[in-house]
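Revision sheet: C-alpha cells.
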Amino acid sequence: APVESVAQISSMLLDTDPTLDPALAEKARVAAAEGLVLLTNDGTLPLGKRPVAVFGRVQIDWFAVGYGSGGDVKVPYIWNLLAGLRDAGVRVDDELATRYSTWSAANRPAFAATWGEWPHHFPEMAIDAADVAAAASRADTAVVAIGRAAGEARDSILEPGSYYLTADERTLLDTVTAHFSRTVVVVDAGNVMDLSWVADYGDRIGAVLFAWQGGMEGARAVAGVLAGEQAPSGKLTDTIARSYEDYPSAPNFGHLDVNVYAEDVFVGYRYFETFAPDRVLFPFGHGLSYTTFELTTEATTDAAALRLEVVVTNTGARAGKEVVQVYTGAPDGALGKPARHLAAFAKTRLLAPGESETVRLDVHLDDLASYDDGGATGHRSAWVLEAGAYPVFVGTDVRRAAEVAAFEVPETQVVRHATEVAAPAHAFDRLVQRRGDDGSAVASREPVPTRTVARAERVLGSLPAELAPTGDRGIDLADVARGAASLDDFVAQLTDEELSLLARGDVTMDSPLGAPGNAGVLGGVSASLRAKGVSPVTTTDGPSGIRLSAYASLLPSGTALASTWNTALIEELAALHGQEMLRKGSDVLLSPGMNIHRDPLCGRNFEYFSEDPVVTGRIAAAVVRGVQSTGLSACPKHFAANNQETNRTRNDSRVSERALREIYLRGFEICVREAAPRTIMTSYNQINGVWAHYHHDLATVVLRDEWGYEGVVITDWWIENAVDPDFPALEDNAYRVRAQVDV
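Predicted:
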C-alpha cells in the first residue's frame, strides 16, 4: 500500500541487528576457499601437524576486501589469519603471535579521511635475525603474510608498498627463508601485484598461495586450505607476467584524459600466448591442488557444434576438485587472431582418490567468430568465421590444454550481421597479428577503422511514437499489473514533473525513502507517484555485500568468486545474498561489477572478475540469476570500458569497435542473454569521446536492439554536464534520456 510519509518509511526500515545468516556465512567461506589459487608448492603444503611460525602484520590486520563502494560494508566480524589458523588446529608459535598481536594493537593502521587516499599496504613490524632464528628453533615451517589493497578512485601504483614489495618485506623474506627450511607465502590482495620475487627466491620459498580478498570469512578459508582441511581448487582468471612492462596495456594506462587501447583484442593471455609466451610467470587458468588429476577427452562434432566428454580422474591421494578448460584457436585470415581464447569451462564436484567424473561441454562454432570492424574480410560490421582450421584444446590452464579436435570452415561465413557502433572518432594505430618469414606471430601495427555512421540519422530513426498526455485518469500501477489498463495509459496521465522524477530518481544518497545508508532511491520519489502505486525502489552498493547502515555480510571479492570457476556455487551464494537483501530492504543490488582486467593496476579489479570476457560473462550471469531468484534485481556494471579509476569521470577510453565487441562488451552480452538482469549501470568514463551515460550506440543500438535487453539502465552515480552534439536543444538529462539511459 502507498506510504504517506518519509518518516514512516525510514522507521519501518531501520535495522540494527548484527545477526547474519549462518548459511550465507558458510557459503561465503566455501566460495572464498574455492577461489584461493595455489601458485607453487613443493610439498610444504598442507601444513598438517607441523609447528608453524607466522610472520607479517597482515596476519592480524587482514585485508578482507578492497576500498570504496565495492567493499564498504558494515560487517559485524572479520576473521584474520592468525585466528583462522588457530581455529583450524594449526600449531601456531604463540610467542611470535603474541608479539605481532601486541605490536599491531599499538600500531593500528591509519586510514585517511579523504576518499580515495586509503593505504595500499601497512608498514611491517621490525623483527631482527635473532628473533627469527629463535622462532625457527620452536617451529620448522614459516608462513609469511603479505597484503595489498586498492579500490574505487584508488588505482595501484608502480611503487614499493603497492605493486612492488617494500624493502622491509624483502628483508623479512630474506631473513625468514635463511632460517626456515620450509616457507609459505600468503599474498592477501584484491589485485595482481608483482610476483617476480617468487622466481628470485626459487626453492627457498616452498609454496605461494594467492588469497584473493575473501570477505569476512576469507582468512578462515585461507587457514583451512593451509591446514589441509580441503585441497585448493582455484584457478587464475588473469595472466601474471614477469614484469609490469610486459603487459600490453602498460604504455597506455594511467593517463589523465585519454587511454588508447592500442593492444586491441590482445588483452591478457590473448597477447601473451600469441606474442610473448616467455614473459609469463603464471599462465591464465593456472592453479595447483594437493592431489593430481588425469583428463581423457572424447569429441564429436557436426556443422554447428563440438561436444566434448571429458573424464576427470583423481589420481592422487587426497580429495579435490578440478576445472576443465576448453580453448580454441583460429586461422589468421585477414583479421589476425589470438593464438587461443577460452570457449567453455566447468568444475568437477569433489572427487575422492581414484574417483572419476564425466564433464560435458559444448563449443558452438558461431561463438568462435571475430568481428570485422573495417571490412578486411569483405564483410564490414559483421561477426565472421574466416576459412580455415579452428583447433580445440582441453586442459587445466591455457598452457596445459592439448589439442583434442578441430573445426574446419571451408569458406568464410558471416555468422551475424551487425551495425557499426561506438567506433573511434580519433585515429590511432592498433596491434594486429601477422606472420613472419619463419611462420611465427609478429606484432604489427595498423590504423584503426574510424567512425562512419551519422548518429543524428540513427537517433531520429529509432524514436518511439509520442504519447498524447491525458491528465490524471485515476489509473493506478496496480491496474496495469492486473491487466485493467496498459502501461501507456498509465504513463500518459503523468505530469511533466512526475515524468522527470521517474527519469532522475531521488538526487540524495542515503535517501530517507529507503533503508538507511542506501545508495539512492528511484521510482516513487514523490507523494504523487506513490499515490499512483509507484513504490520507492531502493538501490544499494554491493559486489561484496549490501552497503547500508545496517549490519550485513561481507562476501568474497569479484576476483575471488571468479577464481572458483564454479558457477553453481556462485549462484547459490548470490541467492542467499538475495535473501539478505529482502531482510535488509534492498531492491536493487549494484552488482556484479564486470569490467575487464585490462591492466593489473586498475583499483577496482578486485570487484571485477577476469581479463577474459567468457569467464566474466558466465560468472556475472550466475550472480544475476542467484540474486534475481528472490524477485529482486541485480545490476551489472559498469557499462562499459571502465578500466581505470584515475580521473575516471573525465577519462576517454579510445578503443576499436572490434575490441569493444570482442572483449569489453562480450561479458555483458553473455550476462544479458543468459540471465536477463533487470537493471544495468553505465560507467563514468567516455567511450570514444562520448560519456557512457549519453551513449545511444551502447544503450540503445547494442543493449536493446541487438541483445534484446528489456530492463532499466541507470547512471553511475552522477552525470557530466554536456550538450547533445547532434541536437543542441538537448542537454544533460534530456541528452541522457534520448540515449535510453533511464534514471
